[in-house]
Amino acid sequence: MCGIIAYKGPREAVPIVIEGLKKLEYRGYDSWGVASVSGKRIAVHKKVGKVGKAVSSEIRLKGNTAIAHTRWGTHGGITEKNAHPHLSCDGKYAVVHNGIVENYQELKKKLIGEGHKFVSESDTEVIVHLIEKEAGKGLKNAVQKVAGELKGRSAFVVMTAEGEIAASRKGSPLIAGKGNGEYYIASDIPAFLEHTNKVMYVDDNEMLVIEDSEIKFYSIATGKEIQKRTVEIDWKSESAEKGDYKHFLIKEIMEQKDTLWRAINQDESKIINVANEIKNAYGTFLVGCGTAGKVCMTGEYLFAKIAAKHLNHAIASEFPSYEPFLTSKTLMIAVSQSGETADVLEAIESAKSKKAKVISLLNVFGSTMMRVSDEFFIVNAGTEKAVVSTKATTAQLAVLTLLAYAAAGKLGEGKRLLLDTASAVNDMLNPRYEEHIRKLAERLRSNENIYIIGRSLNYPMALEAAIKIQETSYIHAEGFAGGELKHGPIALISKGTPCIALVANDHVKDETISNAMEIKSRGGYIIGISPENNDVFDYWIKVPDAGNASPIVNIIPIQILAYQLAVLKGLDPDMPRNLAKSVTVK
Ligand code: M6R
Fold first, then answer.
1. Of the residues 220, 239, 258, which one is the last residue of a structural domain?
2. What is the pLDDT of residues 30-72, one digit of tens each?
3. Residue 340's domain spans which residues?
4. Ligand 1 centre from 580 Cα, in Å?
């Protein structure tokens, strides 16, 4: 998490990095800061809160070189002191950092013993003191030495009072951009895309130095120079705007009218080839985090039901427990919107170390996962700005459904089902439907708990529904497999407890309805999400009868409900508290 941007060139640097920072806010938004060099002096400006609210003209820093940072705190409270950039004791070095310095306590103790004065609780501060300590060796050598000493995944940028910039990447994203006599370093391309589309990818364990208007790349391990290609990115400058919508979240939910078509529109021969690889692999792992992890779990059910093929899903942060089963015949399918999630990247690294093949399902083109995977699919949902994932989720579900049908030798059938589903979603997303769900949100907004049940393909969606409600409304929400309720959780049900039942027209419909009955008998208030109404439902939300695509249609009303709950409770649906869009720390 955290977003970094640096600029060095002939223009006023601060407005450029502040605007860039606003494009990185999805990576964290609890505080921000900027530092620039003017007259061989580094000046810093920091604030708690979102950079989106910052007005460049109010930041009185000048100079042609600047670094900036938007924070998702890991070490130390959300205070100006803990916000980046951090300065060395002599004020001649400033550092911004994304990641965690796992051995910071040991390093800090040593530095304090050597006389360094720390002003924050942040792990990052050790980096700037270490740079100061090694500075006599020259900037390049200092960065190489310090990068080698840090444990954990991180990327940092150093700026000197002389106006030099250097950066290191070890496990967290970092990209360089080249303009006309100017350079940018950032966590992600959109931060500088309005200025240049010429990028140089910094790979893991590499560093760079910008001196005398020249950029040079080096291996951190050997210090040897690395020649880099400049790649021209064929993207338009980040144009995702809210348009007539009040929030990105509802805009992105509504965009599912289009995004499903785009997700399905994959290269058929690639789908068939990958489906064959899945069929022939000696063990396939679907790996992801959060919502993408629930998509992976759905994938396991989809392949079992449609292709009679057993795949394993694993939450990426738990994947180390499965590492002993990796061989060169294993296939890993990594699912990620951003393509930057640290736990997924670690799982990919361990798969690659065993020579297993890695195929990724991603939304962000050019992401780290795209570059480190053997093959990838872009799910084409378009820029997803809201922290709460919606359109990328259903796009991932659509591609996995296609793959499952292709693995069963029924790609045509799968495609027809998904096209029908896309068309049904298009009809479903209308103002009357939204209003019906808003009324339910009114009923639920003051509840302390909401439970969701589902079976088979819709069990992972019950878990995903809980994530959606938690993220936007801060209401305690929990998903259960319908059959599990009577083994414990049913004790939580009392008069009026809301419980959402995800019911598809499938082989587990009757059992799910029975589970809803069991809850209702104990006073529960049953909200049915289903193609047909049922006596057990106190509130019914109709969804299209989508067969094996039911996870897609069942999660959409929950997304709308989550949005409406946030709005009714006066919360920010786009940037919920404590979260970040791209989770680049473990
Ligand atoms: O970018 P990724 O898909 O790898 O992100 C994984 C999770 O962090 C993400 O799905 C998260 O759970 C969302 N905020 C859910 O809405």
1. 239
2. 899 999 999 999 999 999 988 877 776 778 899 999 999 999 8
3. 242-428
4. 9
